[in-house]
Amino acid sequence: MFSSKPISLLTFSLFFFIFLNAATAADPLFHFCFNKENYTANSPFGANLNELLSSLSIKVPPTGFGVTSTGKLGDNQVNGLGLCRGDVSSADCKTCIVEAAKELQSRCPYNKGAVIWYDNCLLKYSDNYFFGQIDDTNRFYMWNVQDVEDPKSFDPKVKQLLSSVSDKASAISKLYATGELVLGTGPDPKLYGLAQCTRDLKGLDCKKCLDDSISLLPNFSSGKRGGRVVGGSCYVRYELYPIVDAQKV
């Protein structure tokens, strides 16, 4: 079983918990309707949003990432971004983005800014131009509720692995990397890690986003068998089992 909670770096008092039971790959991990402004049905903004979501469903799958804007500058322009996990196939990427678009419009009807995450992808849109900027507001935690036997020795290894993976991810154009760390003998011989950023970020900003996320892990997943910090610009994850399909990495 995993637990999750959303956070804002502006306030740590608004925490709540969600327990994910029998979740499937098709279920969203989380979403935010983050804009206080709404649009009306059949409005120019709504038409531009529909066009944007359709465009992203075509633009994102071939490479796993895409950004686009629809409409003219002003109240009716919509800016959007889609990202699929680095090992996800084009077909699965398209399926995820299409489903995410439907869910966003269902969960955040008439909202001018929203983001949703799945295991395979994230999708975000806003009336504000956000490309190239680190999103450190829309972020949530997930962790395995089971503990490891020796947290004092385990936690530093998590930081070691994820710091290494962060370095790798931020240094390549795909801004995505995975890694493993041998723990030794026992029931869990390896630790697995993953780091990824949205590709509108520069390498240095990706590194900052990932390192900030890694620094937050001890707040909730210290001594836990798995954990992740998932945001609108980057995410990090570690587990005691393989996270991705090694054949596709």
From TrEMBL:
Domain Gnk2-homologous: 27-130, 136-243
Subcellular location: Secreted
Keyword Metal-binding attached: no
Keywords on record: Glycoprotein, Repeat, Secreted, Signal
Protein name (record): Gnk2-homologous domain-containing protein
Pfam families: Stress-antifung
Cellular component, GO, one term: extracellular region
Protein family per UniProt: Belongs to the cysteine-rich repeat secretory protein family.
Species this protein is from: Ficus carica
Signal peptide: 1-25
PROSITE patterns in the cross-refs: GNK2 (PS51473)
